[in-house]
Amino acid sequence: MNRDSHLPPLPTKVDLAVVGAGVVGLAHAVEAHARGLSVLVVDAAARPSGATARRGGHVAVTTQAATALACALTSRERWLKLGRDAGFGVRECGSVVVARHPDELAVLDDLVAARAGDAVALDGRSVAERTAVPDALGGVFLPLDLRVEPAAALTAVADWLDSHPQAHVAWGTAAQTFDAGSGCTLVRTARGEVVARRVVVAVGHDVGQLFWEAGAAVSTLRRQMLRVEPPTPGDPGAGARLTTGPVVVGTTTFLRDGAYTASRTVGAVQERWRATRPEVLDHDLHLTLCAQPDGSLVVGDGLMPAGPARSEAVDELLLREAAELLGVDRLTVRSRWSAPELVRADGADRDPFVVTEPLPGVRTVNVTDGLATTTALGLAPRALDALF
Ligand SMILES: Cc1cc2nc3c(=O)[nH]c(=O)nc-3n(C[C@H](O)[C@H](O)[C@H](O)COP(=O)(O)OP(=O)(O)OC[C@H]3O[C@@H](n4cnc5c(N)ncnc54)[C@H](O)[C@@H]3O)c2cc1C
User: Fold this and answer.
1) Which of 58, 99, 197, 226 has its CA 20 to 30 A from that of 292?
2) Whose CA is nearest to atom 44 of ligand 1?
3) What is the DSSP string of 80-98?
4) How far, in Å, from the CA of 121 to the mean position of ligand 1?
5) What pLDDT sits at residue 1?
């Protein structure tokens, strides 16, 4: 029963019910809509505020590997189309990974060889021409990478879906229980019930609250991020290159992205860091500078220690590394936050997708390793092929 009289009632029956309106849930809803299926998305929050809405917006295509790379390439095309359809900005700015040591350049050479055409080697001067980084040894330009503003994109996609008669998005509507019927599932929500032929549960780190086994398949870490005031590098053109130019990525990404694991030289870089910059490894730093439309920079990210409190040491490290990269004395923090990130509980070195079937016709879908925005739009077609 709909208890809130100013909200429209939920549809009583749909082909697909999606629980969670983060990037994973909306990716499945968009795909179902494109296939002519009726779809209802419910989200417990009043507006986008989950893990997706808390990140900088880097769609990191080229440095993925195997199934994640295939999904990222599909995802890229779908982001561009969705941006046009739903009317939000998708910036085809690419990214530049910046090397400041010869052993880092060697790793990037391996990437250029492995991703012919999609990874372009840069010397230090070319890095400075494309970014606000003044004194790099060299780097690599990844033209396929994209930048989206996550919270704005989620809002636009949800509104666009909801504008179609066969698609509904209900915010402030928590899903509570799921009863399997014959060929369908009864989904009970805080605002009433809906019968769905199939259900996708994409609630991120909350999955264990609905299905214990699915929750046990993933562990939740928290990662710290900062937004800093628009920096003022010495070169006056550099500010503009930051805002409109590529996402700037540090070489700590070597430890995370699948494309680097095949490099013969990445181990040597890690050994040098262990000897000279152990804090980078201790805090699992993943330095990314993502400019926002107002010129501010989202600086991500480092591992938050277990417990309720953010670590000042992690923030300091992020700020120091970002300032060094940009060649400025200091950066002024505008805001600080943390966001959940999932990893596989079994620690297996497999693709980042954790899908379970707790009931017939019901799938939980989680994307681990900080790759949901990069891959979810490419994962959804595969998931729906399996579901319907
Ligand atoms: C610091 C950091 C940096 C990252 N960087 C990147 C990156 O560069 N590239 C990339 O691709 N990914 C990145 N990620 C990962 C990515 O942002 C997240 O993994 C992803 O957004 C998770 O999406 P989701 O849709 O699964 O979850 P969420 O975005 O958290 O959405 C889940 C939704 O489910 C809703 N919900 C929960 N319970 C219920 C319920 N019972 N009923 C209804 N609704 C419910 C919540 O309100 C929420 O809106 C990063 C993550 C972090 C932490």
Assistant:
1) 99
2) 43
3) HHHHHHHT--EE---EEEE
4) 33
5) 39
Q: Give the per-residue pLDDT at 2.
A: 41
Rg (CA), the chain: 21
User: What does the angle CA 65 – CA 147 – CA 250 come to, to the nearest 5 degrees?
Assistant: 60
In the Cβ-directed half-sphere of 197, how many Cα atoms lie within 13 Å? 10
Choose one of 42, 367, 373 to mutate for the ligand 1 pocket test, by most ligand atoms within 8 angstroms of C-beta.
Answer: 373
Name residues of the chain where pLDDT drops below 70: 1-6, 233-234
- Residue 22 C-alpha to ligand 1 middle, in angstroms? 5
Task: Kindly state the tokens that stand for 172.
Answer: 């402030």
CA dist., res. 30 & res. 377, Å (int): 9
**At CA 58, angle to CA 305 and CA 252, rounded to 5?**
50
Predicted pLDDT of residue 6: 67
Pocket of ligand 1 (CB under 6 A): 19-25, 42-45, 50-52, 55, 58, 60, 174-175, 202-204, 206, 210, 223, 225, 300-301, 339-341, 367, 370-374
> For residues 282 and 301, is the Cβ–Cβ distance under 8 A?
no
Q: Look at residue 99 in the predicted model and tell me its pLDDT.
A: 97
The residues near 169 (Cβ < 8 Å, ≥ 6 apart) are: 21, 29, 40, 41, 43, 158, 159, 161, 162
Which helix (DSSP H) or strand (DSSP E) does residue 201 occupy?
strand 192-201
Which ligand 1 atom lies nearest to the CA of residue 210? Answer: 41
Domains observed in the chain: 13-52+151-217+348-387 (3.50.50.60), 95-143+219-344 (3.30.9.10)
Nearest to 291 by CA among 238, 344, 338: 238
Element (H, E) at 221: strand 218-228
